[in-house]
Amino acid sequence: MELQAVLMAAGGGSRMMDLTYNTPKPLLPVGNKPLIWYPLNLLERAGFEEVMVITTKEVQKALSTEQRLKLDVKMKLDVVCIPEEADMGTADALRHIQQKIKTDILVVSCDLITDVALHEVVDLFRAHNATLSMLMSKVHEFTETVPGQKGKKKTGEQRDFVGVDSTGKRLLFMANEADLEDGLVIRKSIMRKHPKMHIKTGLLDAHLYCLKRSVVDFLVDNKSISSLRGELVPYLVRKQFTKALGSQRDDEHTDQNLKRKDANASLEILSSSKDEALLQLACERSCWNDHRGDMSEAYHGGQLRCYAHIMEDGTCYRVNTLAAYVEANRVAPKLFEEPPVHPSAVISERSLVGGDSIIGAFCQIADKTSIKRSTIGTSTTVKEKVKVTNSIIMNGITIEEGCNIQGSVICNNAVIGRGADLKYCLVGSGQRIEAEAERTNEVIVGSDQLMEI
Amino acid sequence: SHCSHIPLRSDYGYKVSLFSHLHQYSRKAPLTQQISIPATVIHPSIVRLGLQYSQGIVAGSNARSVALLHAFKQVIQDYSTPPNEELPRDLVNKLKPYISFLNQCRPLSASMGNAIKYIKKEISNIPSQCKEEEAKKKLLLCIDNYVNEKITLAAKAISKCAIDKISDGDVILVYGCSSLVNHILCEAFEKQRKFRVIVVDSRPRLEGREALRRLVKRGIRCTYVLISAVSYILPEVSKVFLGAHALLANGYVMSRVGTSQIALVAKAYNVPVLVCCETYKFCERVQTDSFVSNELDDPDDLIVTREGKTQLADWQSVKSLGLLNLVYDVTPPDFVDLVITELGMIPCTSVPVVLRVKNVDQ
């Protein structure tokens, strides 16, 4: 077997608590499909036949019982639960399933919505015998208004600095602004080997990684690494250029520090153990080099190589903020070919449902309603003379007569009283909006949720 | 198991009519687009190898053969005989789709073809009562022996012969990056021969740069020119050493495109041309021209981009324009003075004798 797929679905959605306090992130509806359906669909289309899903008990229960979820995924799902209290990072999760990992792995996050041709990432991993190969994308400007946003958009996000070589594929440098207190420092050894480096800041890390199996073994020996994205990936990118095995200094220290696991050494040993004499001979005889201008052989003789495929066009979103969630709902339906109106929905003939709206199963849309550029979830009732524009209405919601909902997100099982006028609001799960209410740009959640800071 | 379906790679771009019978693929459309991830029908080592072939990461006749045999070793190690099947027949059948896949990634070289023939023969000759573990061990050993004999030891023997032909004060011209010729020159330098090298290179591959790097790294004095300057530089040259992709049964030498030009000019200047070639690259095919059987590389490789600007970006829209990126050409035996093989130094016309002798041995 070449690759095993691992889907990380235990993350909390900490940046959109208003949406996730009652619904776990993997189950949030996007275009009327649970968010987790998108990476699963990506893997299935590529040709995977089974996936290991690391998630919480709550999500596991939902995946197996809820008919409404309609996963229609033919792959075999091996669901591994981790306790929520354990607060496991993605690297911790990999350590947890180490016994199940027999080959190289493809790690995907449950919040990734993309139409990338997966072979672009995997081919880099294969052709260069890379230790890490990942997917990145140009950040798309969000055009949709985000409900409940007070004032200007926060510049909050600290930038990621990604350095690539002149082919645009080899990763030379990766750091987050938060870790660069004194400015961007680039080692001379990197500049000597790759004099031309392009540093990019407008990139989104899709959290899709191909990793060699030896990396998982390495994680088992290095328990201090907790997160893939935050710690392991920058570590691997850095380690490409640190001193190789067998240098003078290592020999001097082996006697003194027998206990200290030389992290660099173990990674290189593990990843090069399969290289036999034949492979070495083939490399020597091949007239190819990945760079030119200096006296070094291909890859400068380095065993550890990290690559990235940067998507220029196409769709790539990580649904981990409210803004991304709203944007994804606009874009995601274009990724699958299903009729926008579910056949089981009951829609009155005297209603206006725009061509760019999606109506979920078992909905009831009454007379004289107008639904434009919106998503209506399953089992939602929309009564007469309601106007819904640019909004996301989740499942099991009731919207009484005469309401006007614009640019808003209404979460599961909410009830919107008759004649209410909501503009750019986020109505939390199970909330009831009183009749004739007029709210603009507000986040309406339960008082018990307000404790979250 | 049913005959596995290998996807077909489609041709790319306009093909010059003389070569329209050959395939022309684009590097931007790898065959991996059409197979599943993870690869199940094709063994992962073979998928990796195919990618490395099509991207040019493994290039050169010897490198390709060695890499192929390495991948076959992985396949054999992971192989297990299905019930009701016999290893000799089943393993050979398993290899067929892999070879077809590799052929579509990049057409097989003559050396690869011979290596495959050898492997298939060895597998078929496994006695049916042999246990699977033993059979696998035997096959892995066969592969190691083949590489050792036909490539490593052959290179040693050829070096020995060739070094006798290198005298102090020689100016040796080499073309492109032949692993065998590089090896010979490095050995000669080790043995304290005093010579200097002229490396001739050509677009679009510019393999000479890699040859130059390897020679200069050893300390050999080198000059670098492009093939357009070969008639200018040739009066300085005392010998020409050329590598070969294959030696054909009628004595023609198939090598990187441009080799026949070098041989022609050398002949005009009465400079001896020595071709170095291991016997496992000898091929029973007969060819007198470079059209009938050749390889067309990605035409987009011919496009030059300077400061982000490309004149030929829309070459496909110009109906009267075709880009031709030939990989090989054949050199007639009249231009080759000597072929150095591990069996000794033979004239080009003795190739069919060697082939006949090899067949008798087997």
Automatic annotation (TrEMBL), chain A:
It comes from Pygocentrus nattereri (Red-bellied piranha). Component of the translation initiation factor 2B (eIF2B) complex which is a heterodecamer of two sets of five different subunits: alpha, beta, gamma, delta and epsilon. Subunits alpha, beta and delta comprise a regulatory subcomplex and subunits epsilon and gamma comprise a catalytic subcomplex. Within the complex, the hexameric regulatory complex resides at the center, with the two heterodimeric catalytic subcomplexes bound on opposite sides. Residues 5-141 form the Nucleotidyl transferase domain. The lineage of its organism: Eukaryota, Metazoa, Chordata, Craniata, Vertebrata. GO terms for biological process: central nervous system development; cytoplasmic translational initiation; glial cell differentiation; myelination. It comes from the Eukaryota. Residues 345-436 form the EIF2B subunit epsilon/gamma LbH domain. Its main location: cytoplasm. This is Translation initiation factor eIF2B subunit gamma. The keyword Acetylation applies.
Automatic annotation (TrEMBL), chain B:
Its main location: cytoplasm. InterPro entries: IF-2B-related, IF_2B-like_C, NagB/RpiA_transferase-like. One of its GO terms (biological process) is animal organ development. It is found in: Cytoplasm, Cytosol. One of its GO terms (cellular component) is cytosol. It comes from the Eukaryota. Acts as a component of the translation initiation factor 2B (eIF2B) complex, which catalyzes the exchange of GDP for GTP on eukaryotic initiation factor 2 (eIF2) gamma subunit. Its guanine nucleotide exchange factor activity is repressed when bound to eIF2 complex phosphorylated on the alpha subunit, thereby limiting the amount of methionyl-initiator methionine tRNA available to the ribosome and consequently global translation is repressed. PANTHER family: TRANSLATION INITIATION FACTOR EIF-2B, TRANSLATION INITIATION FACTOR EIF-2B SUBUNIT DELTA. This is Translation initiation factor eIF2B subunit delta. The gene is EIF2B4.
